[in-house]
## 1
Amino acid sequence: MLFLLAIAVGGAIGSLLRFLISKYFQTKVGVEFPVGTLLVNLSSAFLIGFSFAFLVERVEVSPNLRALIITGFLGGYSTYSTLFYEAYYMMVGGEWFKSFLYLFLSNLLGILFVTLGYGLGKLL
């Protein structure tokens, strides 16, 4: 039961942080490109790489803490469902180039950020 509670708490915190960070950066940048979502997804990619390397392979933490951080927090924090909605919305609006650029950057940079996070987690 504690395992499920850890996931729920982590997910709630991750979802709230995703919303706040995404809206903050989108407002600050002020362009019609989903910069806020892109930044959240890239930071999520970095954090998942780091978390697996550090919390799973490097140090020993309880399964409940791993569930809270990886499954709960990062599951709630990641916004890949939003990414696909935003890309679809751009396509429907005829902004094909912007949509493909967004998908390309999200995926290519996402892999890069997982790699960077994983590498840093291995170093610590």
## 2
Amino acid sequence: MKIKKGDNVIVLKGKDRGKKGKVQQVFPKEGKLVVEGMNIRKKHIKPRKAGEKGQVVSTAGRMSSSNVALVCPKCSKPARIGHVMQGSKKYRSCKNCKATIDI
């Protein structure tokens, strides 16, 4: 998976298409990630104590990593990601402007 926690991404498919957000959590084995403020799910919570009220809580749900694209920090466009070796280190690079992302 070429997207990491903390990356800025843009949503390409689904109800949040065109919105930008930051990746909060990544699940590489499943190929999914959580983007803040996207794919909002509502969860109903029962009252646990006497006198407490039940409530509805909104949380960000998982989405497929194929539905998002990394936003290049240099050109500010959605970019496909490649890898470049500089010395003995491997960096991610933008396919549009050839800028390295991880430095």
